Amino acid sequence: MSYETILLEIKDRVGLITLNRPQALNALNAQIVSELNQALDSLEADLKIGCIVLTGSKKAFAAGADIKEMAELTYPQIYLDDLFSDSDRVANRRKPIIAAVNGFALGGGCELALMCDFILAGDNAKFGQPEINLGVLPGMGGTQRLTRAVGKAKAMEMCLTGRFIDAVEAERCGIVARIVPADELLDDALKTAALIASKSVPISMMVKESVNRAFEVSLSEGVRFERRVFHAAFATQDQKEGMAAFVAKRAAEFQNK
Ligand SMILES: CCCCCCCCCCCCC[C@H](O)CC(=O)SCCNC(=O)CCNC(=O)[C@H](O)C(C)(C)COP(=O)(O)OP(=O)(O)OC[C@H]1O[C@@H](n2cnc3c(N)ncnc32)[C@H](O)[C@@H]1OP(=O)(O)O
Questions:
Q1: Which reaction does it catalyse (predicted)?
Q2: Is the ipTM of this complex over 0.95?
């Protein structure tokens, strides 16, 4: 399957998706989101793939929604179309997705990165929700995921001022898992993804589902959910292989069963 606005590469057990609208700093439009979801569908269906990396260019992960395409939209049109609902399909993927962010991740670009499971940032990365400068507010989960990631004070300041923050501030406040020299970011992200893909895919899916549950339910309900999923892990061959390998002092060879 060939795409116009994204590149899809398979690197052993890792799927690499590169946003590819450099002329507009990877500004997000309906086509790029549609092609992104098509690529994610294929990677989710490929049993070999254990982890996905989503990245952009050296200058921009994504500079937000395509303002030129959005400027003339009207309320009835976007309400009837349920604009941005397609993006929920990105956030609800079951396999782990790493966002490798160099340069700008602004507006929808920051929101897209926050939909991923964790962000590795190049030391040139800049994050922001500058929608207020355009007479709107974040519309793809930014007020919700950013607030859960960094807390009310930082999220409110960023959304009300439209201020960009650099990689150091983003790591300090919890948006970013790790900072990497920009030139080494993609290699690091692919190595990290390969490590995750070497684990049991069903178990990594259970990890993702349990961690994300913390955003949805009370602590007691979340602990109960995690416990039941932990119990379920013992129905997998991979749990038997993982623990047997430890006892035999050898590397586990997970079969994703
Ligand atoms: C879009 C309608 C259908 C949508 C369907 C689904 C879309 C996916 C969902 C998206 C999320 C929507 C919800 C979100 O909360 C709303 C937003 O994201 S609003 C946009 C927020 N982003 C911004 O405000 C950033 C705008 N850009 C800038 O401030 C600057 O470009 C920069 C990033 C600081 C870089 O500045 P410079 O280095 O000076 O570079 P230029 O400004 O010259 O840019 C180079 C080139 O790229 C074009 N460009 C940059 N950003 C955008 C953009 N967001 N949309 C369109 N085009 C962009 C810029 O115009 C230049 O091109 P040129 O004019 O030279 O042809």
A1: a (3S)-3-hydroxyacyl-CoA = a (2E)-enoyl-CoA + H2O; a 4-saturated-(3S)-3-hydroxyacyl-CoA = a (3E)-enoyl-CoA + H2O
A2: yes
Q: Is the pTM of this model over 0.90?
A: yes
Ligand 1 nearest-atom number relative to CA 86: 6
**Distance of CA 104 from the midpoint of ligand 1 (Å):** 10
Catalytic annotation, residues: 65, 108, 111, 131
Residue with CA nearest ligand 1 atom 51:
63
Task: Check if the beta carbon of residue 102 is closer than 8 Å to that of residue 55.
Answer: yes
Phi then psi for residue 91, to 5 deg, are -70, -25
What's at 127, amino acid-wise?
F
Ligand 1 contacts CB of residue 70 (under 6 A):
yes
Measured distance CA(19)–CA(153) in Å, rounded: 31
Domains and CATH numbers, the chain: 6-197 (3.90.226.10), 200-248 (1.10.12.10)
